[in-house]
TrEMBL record:
Record InterPro entries: Carb-sel_porin_OprB, OprB_Porin, OprB_sf
GO molecular function: porin activity
Family of this protein: Belongs to the OprB family.
Record-linked Pfam families: OprB
Gene Ontology CC entries for this record: membrane
Official protein name in the record: Carbohydrate-selective porin OprB
GO terms classed as biological process: carbohydrate transport
Length: 203
């Protein structure tokens, strides 16, 4: 279920997109922490508890603040979002992000974009307690939706800047830089600086 609002503000028709939603999956999923008696299954050796259903919710928005041209994205746009998922069965319970994107600015390249983003990802309490139980028991960390787990996870911060260059009709290149604090959500690895290059072609 999702509701939305698509306003246009002022004489420059500053576009906005706002939406909020809620989802529910009625499948059964194993609890990350609890066994059938409510104790940590890693420590007890008992069968995992299964939970009926998994809920999720989200709020997302983007709003043009300054218009630079006629296109729907030609301007300075602020964006942000929040997502939540049931932490009993999902390793990451919260995801929050915010950023700014500028397109069509007056630097002689009206089809280029430049932007900056911040993301914060929080692991669920059940996932963290599961990993602490694994340490106490001396067994390997169970993998989760993020893949292999190397240490007790809590949260991860991602800082990103990018530039999307329109190089030919229908073709763009986007160099991207990310600085990742607590890679994988733990302190096992040092902070990471990552460079990437994305190639886009519309045929």
């Amino acid at each position: 279920m999702e509701i939305g609002w698509l306003p246009k503000f002022g004489k420059n028709h500053l576009n906005g997109h706002y939406k909020a939603g809620f989802g529910y999956d009625n499948s059964s999923y194993p609890d990350l922490l609890e066994d059938v008696h409510g104790n940590a299954w890693i420590e007890s050796g008992m069968p995992k508890r299964y939970r009926a259903g998994r809920a999720s919710a989200w709020v997302m928005a983007d709003q043009m603040l300054v218009r630079n041209g006629d296109g729907p994205t030609n301007g300075l746009i602020a964006l942000a979002g929040w997502m939540w998922s049931d932490g009993h069965t999902t390793a990451m319970s919260h995801h929050i992000w915010a950023g700014m994107v500028e397109t069509g600015a007056a630097w002689g390249r009206p089809m280029d974009s430049v932007g900056a983003m911040y993301q914060w990802e929080l692991m669920s309490r059940a996932s963290t307690l599961q990993q602490e139980a694994a340490v106490n028991t001396g067994v390997a960390f169970p993998s989760n939706q993020w893949g292999t787990v190397w240490g007790i996870q809590s949260h991860e911060n991602i800082y990103e800047v990018f530039y999307n260059a329109h190089v030919a009709p229908g073709i763009s290149l986007q160099p991207d830089f990310q600085y990742i604090n607590r890679p994988g959500g733990s302190t096992v690895f040092h902070d990471a600086a990552v460079m990437g290059l994305q190639f886009n072609a519309v045929l």
